[in-house]
Amino acid sequence: MMTSASRPSAATSVRPVALHTADATPQAPRVPSFTEHPARNPGTDLDLDVVAATHVNRSAAERRAATLPARRTVKKEWQAAWLLRAISCMDLTTLSGDDTPGNVHRLCAKARRPVRDDLLEALGVSDLGITVGAVCVYHRYVSDAVKALAGSGIPVAAVSTGFPAGLSPMSQRVAEIRASVDAGAQEIDVVITRAHVLRGEWNALYDEVRTFREACGDAHIKTILGVGELATLTNVARASQVAMMAGSDVIKTSTGKEPTNATLPVGLVMVRQIRDYLQRTGHVVGFKPAGGIRTAKQSLDWLALVKEELGDRWLRPDLFRFGASGLLTDIERQLEHFVTGRYSAAHRHPMV
Questions:
Q1: Cβ–Cβ under 8 Å, residues 269 and 54
Q2: b vs e for 167-187, b when ≥16 Cβ sit within 10 Å of the residue's Cβ?
């Protein structure tokens, strides 16, 4: 293990990083302008004509997504800046069967201070107060997380509606949402009934998400599509459109429990639906990829995708989140490598 005495002097070997992304990727396609703090998506009436007209050329989407990792890379201080941005957009998550209040408290402590102080000082960003975007837990641990994060400004997100399958009775799913909001959750991650999508039951899907939105009240609703179980990219696109019409604040790829979770082709399809919805309605919707995003390199690919397709405004935690549990450890290791020139063991950056 490398000791602090053996590290190169950060003050002389590392330039402070700048938390911006200009010039790293080309400008995104033009989207309608909106306010600095856009209003919540109120939803629209269900437009079945738009749904029926939505199709995806799978091979084209996969080719476009495949070019991104090789074509868009950031290096040196730019990379460090993008990784810090990724941290600020992270939903730090624990959704395990062996969760305990102690685990949640330690996760919340990490959420408050996601990067070691010595690394932040070496990067010249100690004064930025970097935290994660939110902490995501099961309903049972919402009150524990709320207490642990008191005064931090970090919201608590609760997975709800019979997560991850979403097959419990509707009354129970709605009651779970309301209970999480009453316990202090400011964001609710709901799961849809995938059968509605697979059977083309768009009215049922719209009514379901609309009911969830109403139960959330002032809490933001992040609608999980479960893309790995929707069979086609066209289904993903159509489900995205219906979820936004029903009033989703954020559309999210996966629960993290499906065999296939967040992939770049799926992400490309979903962010283009967000762009289309904004162009048609003027309403802003956020995006959250979740499941299988474990490395710093993957987080950079997702940031580049969102920047190219939606623009810089989406690279903020109110409109973009990563759902992740192990990602932070790898990002912190990459930041230490940037500072010292050496990779550290993962146990130097414990999560809980």
A1: no
A2: eeeeeebbebbeebbebbbbb
- Confidence (pTM): 0.90
Strand partners, 159: 138, 189
- For residues 271 and 306, is the Cβ–Cβ distance under 8 A? yes
Q: Determine the Cα–Cα distance for residues 208 and 171; give it in Å rounded to an integer.
A: 11
**Domains of the chain: residue spans and CATH:** 40-348 (3.20.20.70)
Between 233-245 and 264-281, two packed helices, what is the crossing angle to 10 degrees?
40
Count of C-beta atoms within a 10 Å radius of residue 151: 6
pLDDT at residue 158 above 90? yes
Interval 282-293: pLDDT, tens: 999 999 999 999
Beta strands in the chain (DSSP E): 90-93, 134-138, 156-159, 187-191, 220-224, 250-252, 286-288, 322-324
Residues with a known catalytic role:
189, 252, 288
Cβ neighbours of residue 40 under 8 Å, at least 6 residues apart? Answer: 220, 249
What band does 32 get if pLDDT is binned at 50, 70 and 90? low
List the one residue out of 145, 132, 146, 151 whose CA is nearest residue 95: 145
Q: Is 44 exposed, middle or buried, given 0-12, 13-18 or 19+ CB atoms closer than 10 A? A: middle
